[in-house]
Amino acid sequence: xxxxxxxxxxxxxxxxxxxxxxxxxxxxxxxxxxxxxxxxxxxxxxxxxxxxxxxxxxxxxxxxxxxxxxxxxxxxxxxxxxxxxxxxxxxxxxxxxxxxxxxxxxxxxxxxxxxxxxxxxxxxxxxxxxxxxxxxxxxxxxxxxxxxxxxxxxxxxxxxxxxxxxxxxxxxxxxxxxxxxxxxxxxxxxxxxxxxxxxxxxxxxxxxxxxxxxxxxxxxxxxxxxxxxxxxxxxxxxxxxxxxxxxxxxxxxxxxxxxxxxxxxxxxxxxxxxxxxxxxxxxxxxxxxxxxxxxxxxxxxxxxxxxxxxxxxxxxxxxxxxxxxxxxxxxxxxxxxxxxxxxxxxxxxxxxxxxxxxxxxxxxxxxxxxxxxxxxxxxxxxxxxxxxxxxxxxxxxxxxxxxxxxxxxxxxxxxxxxxxxxxxxxxxxxxxxxxxxxxxxxxxxxxxxxxxxxxxxxxxxxxxxxxxxxxxxxxxxxxxxxxxxxxxxxxxxxxxx
Length: 497
Known about the structure:
Blueprint: E1 8-14, E2 17-22, E3 25-32, E4 36-44, E5 48-53, E6 62-66, E7 69-73, H1 76-81, H2 90-99, E8 112-114, E9 119-124, E10 127-132, H3 145-161, E11 170-173, H4 179-189, E12 195-199, E13 205-206, H5 208-220, E14 224-227, H6 233-243, H7 255-263, E15 268-270, H8 275-279, H9 286-293, H10 297-307, H11 313-319, H12 322-327, H13 330-342, H14 350-364, H15 366-371, E16 377-379, H16 385-393, H17 396-399, H18 404-412, E17 428-429, H19 432-447, H20 458-470, H21 479-495
Parallel strand pairs: 11-12, 11-15, 12-14, 15-16
Antiparallel strand pairs: 1-2, 1-7, 3-4, 4-5, 5-9, 6-7, 6-8, 9-10, 13-17
Helix pairs in contact: 2-13, 3-16, 3-18, 6-21, 10-13, 19-20, 19-21
């Protein structure tokens, strides 16, 4: 991401004259039937630029706007290459340091934002306006559990029907969960022979995805590719950060899948993004539901900051320079998160909406639309307009026992109902052949970085990196964050004007 081939548009208005460069027209993503699917597009008519995106805003599209200057691209790095201001957004980063993703429309940069979902924007004569194309408010429907399951099965089949492949150059990333299985079994039910692909887990992670995906592939007599993790993990981590425009702290393990798909000429991929948030209900924790309904956003913010926090406050206090962490404090993150949580107070299923438009859209969605960006068509049936609207309209009571999706799959494809799902935390893989070079590579990257750092406390970090070189098997869980922060800093240094 950020290479010279990435599409972008830049313009500067000055005294009744507009200077511009880049692509005057662009079509991104994978639209279906015109305004369905996942897409973003823009057009320049010589006087102004008009741009828009899909209903849920999953196609990455970022913009910069300041002092009559405007830039639009799917890559933040490409925007920075245009010479825009690269000031960091410390409030946004206070959230990222604790949740691992950005909320709302934030990015690491103060003057670069993600285009909001379902938006139409126009930049003309130095002025930018962005508005919502239509209302996204979803009202709850009254429906029985049985009818809801039937409605899910029928609408899911229709969503796949709209997205059938043009040829046999397609694959389905298959896990041990429900989202990819639903897609996979619908293809099988249609008499097709989808090829499945699963990556081996990260070191110290569960092998369950591979075990269960293999069982399902064998039960359906379908080809199943298992991709090993790369020993070049530092390279994978750095490329992941570029492809996700520095908006995600995870999913580098999917880079081996991206490399396989790209090297084997795969033209279409079917991804299960959104299926869990919209139909599983496993994140609808009763205490969280009660707190949302009672307006106890302070309590809820603490819950999420602890639930999704990959790094303790103690670790952050050592790793981040004290003067910087003071401006990116827990209190700052909590106050901001409370603001965001309160915007969903009128939704009939506020937890679903908050998670879907923040964690699902801003982090998990960067797998299909960031890491797999070089695949021609990435289809996401759960984001189908009719299907997603239906699932969002279901009463919370239908979803909150976390068995709704399981029941829909069992009823839709009963002949495979006995194939189990993954068991989280089971079958952890150690993989020392990956751990040792991973630790050494991460350590050398950190130790040879251009110092001093504006963000990272070298005194805290150095002994932990040295252990990665001289103590085989040692892995410090903060490696990924260190790489992210140092690479982000390199990016700021490279493009700062």
